Amino acid sequence: MASLLVPQICSKKQNSCFCHPQPGCLCMVWSTQPENGRGRRIPGLFWLSWEPQSHLTYRPKDTQPQARYWEAEEEIDFEKDLLTVPPGFKKGMDFAPKDHLTPAPGLLSLSCLLEPLDLGEGDEDENEAVGQPGGPRGDAVSASPCRAPLARASSLEDLVLKVASTAVSTPEAPKPLPQEQWAIPVDATSPVGDFYRLIPQPAFQWAFEPDVFQKQAILHLERHDSVFVAAHTSAGKTVVAEYAIALAQKHMTRTIYTSPIKALSNQKFRDFRNTFGDVGLLTGDVQLHPEASCLIMTTEILRSMLYSGSDVIRDLEWVIFDEVHYINDAEVRVMGVGKQVAMRLKRRQIYVISTVTRPVPLEHYLFTGNSPKTQGELFLLLDSRGAFHTKGYYAAVEAKKERMSKHAQTFGAKQPTHQGGPAQDRGVYLSLLASLRTRAQLPVVVFTFSRGRCDEQASGLTSLDLTTSSEKSEIHLFLQRCLARLRGSDRQLPQVLHMSELLHRGLGVHHSGILPILKEIVEMLFSRGLVKVLFATETFAMGVNMPARTVVFDSMRKHDGSTFRDLLPGEYVQMAGRAGRRGLDPTGTVILLCKGRVPEMADLHRMMMGKPSQLQSQFRLTYTMILNLLRVDALRVEDMMKRSFSEFPSRKDSKAHEQALAELTKRLGALEEPDVTGQLVDLPEYYSWGEELTETQHMIQRHIMESVNGLKSLSAGRVVIVKNEEHHNALGVILQVSSNSTSRVFTTLVLCDKSLSKDQQDSGPATPDVPYPDDLVGFKLFLPEGPCDHTVIKLQPRDIAAITTKVLRVNGEKILEDFSKRQQPKFKKDPPLAAVTTAVQELLRLAQAHPAGPPTLDPVNDLQLKDVSVVEGGLRARKLEELIRGAQCVHSPRFPAQYLKLRERMQIQKEMERLRFLLSDQSLLLLPEYHQRVEVLRTLGYVDEAGTVKLAGRVACAMSSHELLLTELMFDNALSTLRPEEIAALLSGLVCQSNPPGDPLQQALTSPSSLQGIERVRAVAKRIGEVQVACGLNQTVEEFVGELNFGLVEVVYEWARGMPFSELAGLSGTPEGLIVRCIQRLAEMCRSLRGAARLVGEPVLGAKMETAATLLRRDIVFAASLYTQ
């Protein structure tokens, strides 16, 4: 096949790049122009897509230059001197200027590849046109280079031969997408019959036929679209990720696969390495093949790369966020949700592909048995079609009630406890497992929401033996291979021995207190089907691909850190989704144990069929984020906050706000200027005084209605002034006071005009068209123009304009009963009762006697409101009333017309100010906190007045956590005088998450300097907390200092001194897994401190931190993951 040498010419003098293109070939252009001020060479990626073009023309052979023009140094005229016919070809390309600026189809730039992740761009591309959603991708030239489909042909010659007979019309500029269509749903049930015609040579082949939703996603990946795949557990989301990785390898680019937890990253590394080979792993403590085309990493690592501008992301094509819903969890959030979900902010379509049904349907049961006699008490509650069976629920209730009745006859009326002890648990699980073995429904995952209960329940079943002799042999050999990498004493740890015994019997335990290597052993044996019963906490359901035949819930209640509550629908669905193995089980079984009483039907229905929790932004400002972004000139922190999902509700209408602002600007320019000369010279002031007076009165009334004394005064018989949409300054008397879910409701009899029909009864317009002083000052009461009538309405606190000093004696019940009776057609013409007539006459007499309103309760003197804003508001209101009464403009005959002109202009300007505020940074929800944190940094000397990051700020950027505290300890020289093992022990207080019994300061500390160090750390933390409080942050000093936990000081100290882990575990009641996690995080912190010490020129401290990290990194704590071997 002939080759073509194609130069890619950039807008400025750059190095041209030549390649021999194949279909889908990739060419890289290295620009020497600095980006973001860093001066790095940035690769631009371009697809050589040979689309038929009408401007390809034939050039005679003798016009081809003979010199090797790429070696020439002279300047080239890019308009006239370009080579248009490649050597050896008869036809070429005409480089004539085009009438439009639309990029060539098939052109792919790096900025488009990185657009969802680019932290260095503003919104300069907001006006970039985007193609219409849902249309055929190949029908028109896309406005964005990333949207072009890849050209496909058997050879380059075939493409060239097709050019002559093909003509393409000049494309039109695509229209912008309608509002709210950036997330485009895709019908995942629509068959893709032409899949293999559209993609004749897929980048990846499977041994099975992909499902419809997978084909839909693959088609969009081929078009280089962003996709959001929401599929049921085991539906095959990984297929989409595999195709993205295969595409990147085909295009010679890079893919990043992120997950919220390291365990899932390790598992995916093993899976993808077996499939693709060229796969790397980057986690906090492991770096394997960082140069690979596919990198598996946690979201923390990706965030760090984005902050530091790592070269890894320079040739990035795809970023895959796995288990993206876990960004709703405050404990595992890292990446801003806005960068993953709010693609609208970058005018990039994201295609939402979701599955309607599970590939393996689920059946949900209640189990009430607790003995061999009752092991058959399994009642269907929710079938595979989603139908809720009340019959099964009541059968479970009756079975439980019958057993409780027998229990009362035998042991008395005392009912058994709700949960029971270990003995009762053992009976329940023995009967359940016997039933499941009979029904061939093993393996089973039992979700228990306590580490201690997991261990107890597994230990209580050691009499069971669920494995065959061949399975025992396989388990034994696997354990030997895995544990051989541990030192001898570590292989004899009590947890290792106990877990080995359980595994030989087909039992397993999985929670955060288990050693990491043991958790991986359990996972691998479970995936092989050798663990028949697994007791696990809900973290097992987070992404680790370990489906089971059956899932059992030990309880439907959990402790969330503050209180016990029922499982949320999303939590239940996530864990229940582990039931059912695709291709093996026709249905999955989910069982809820009823150890005590059967839960309420409404609670079960809400948990199983309720609406899952909505995605909430967990974006939060941190000092590290602020300092990192302050160091980047091209991006402000405000820009980052705009892109966060927390700002999405307020920013989603930005385009509509911009359009409205433009329309209002046009309207304002077309308005006639009001004439404010002569007597009307004070007309603008009059208008502003009236607006301010109205706002001040509303503020005072709001305080009154929110006060205790104000609400007490609103009892039956109180006369009030009503002002709402139907009534303007009408007198009313309260008949009844009640409360709803949000506020109090006042049932009130109000005066109205009898001349109007019942459905039109009101007291005049809410506000006059042209308000005179009598309309603004005081209350110009409504008086009926004809015969007086009344109505009874329910008022909210905001409908009461004023509370008068008058109280009438009324019979509210009789009035309400009579009014309700006269609303019926049969009694509509009946005269009102005397109680009603008396109340109406009293209100009318008051209105006639006080046209400006009867005396009202003074908020300060009568209601005892001492709030400063109320007192100052009252003084200001009286001053405004005087100014309004003295205005001269109201005496001019031109006042009404000019007032209307001025009001229209002022209302438009006010609305424009509101829209500008919504579009500005000042409307950001997190902006006040940002200013407070910047003030903290400025007070501590991390940034100067101009916002430039100083040395202390650069040091804080190097810290992985507790950046302010660690930096202050460094600059206070609090660590340099300590030995490496003492530094490690002291810093454990910043990463420890366990809560051992007793005061850690009362435990036997190895050296007095450790105790002194703890006190010094707390003193520094207290000082930082006080600065935060002084700057307005909503965190008390006690809360900030309380984040430190020195419970593992002695454990870490002895570990750093070389104590074997087998002896270490006996020093604390903390589970072994949590100790390992603490030491691993501590080693990462030591590495951060080592880099910070080198940054400030502290070689002594740097050497000590290097030594401390080396002392920590040994034996079972840092045993390599089995997934990486």
Task: Write a structural description.
The structure is a single chain. It contains 38 helices and 24 strands. The strands form six sheets. It has a seven-stranded mixed beta sheet, with helices on both faces. Among the domains are: 1-33 and 181-355, P-loop containing nucleotide triphosphate hydrolases (Rossmann fold), CATH 3.40.50.300; 360-407 and 419-442 and 549-554 and 575-610, Rossmann fold (3-Layer(aba) Sandwich), CATH 3.40.50.300; 455-546, P-loop containing nucleotide triphosphate hydrolases (Rossmann fold, 3-Layer(aba) Sandwich), CATH 3.40.50.300; 682-754 and 770-887; 959-1112, Sec63 N-terminal domain-like fold. The radius of gyration is 37 Å and the shape is globular. Helix 37 runs antiparallel to helix 38 (1099-1112). It has 1125 residues and is α/β, with parallel strands linked by helices. The model is unreliable at 1-74, 98-174, 330-345, 413-418, 757-766 and 997-1004 (pLDDT under 50).
Mean pLDDT: 78
What is the oligomeric state here?
single chain
Per CATH, the class of the domain at 1-33 and 181-355 reads Alpha Beta
For CATH, the homologous superfamily of the domain at 1-33 and 181-355 is named as P-loop containing nucleotide triphosphate hydrolases
Structural class: alpha/beta
Low-confidence segments, ≥5 residues, pLDDT <50? 1-74, 98-174, 330-345, 413-418, 757-766, 997-1004
Question: How far apart, in Å, are the first and last alpha carbons?
Answer: 43 Å
Q: Count the DSSP helices.
A: 38
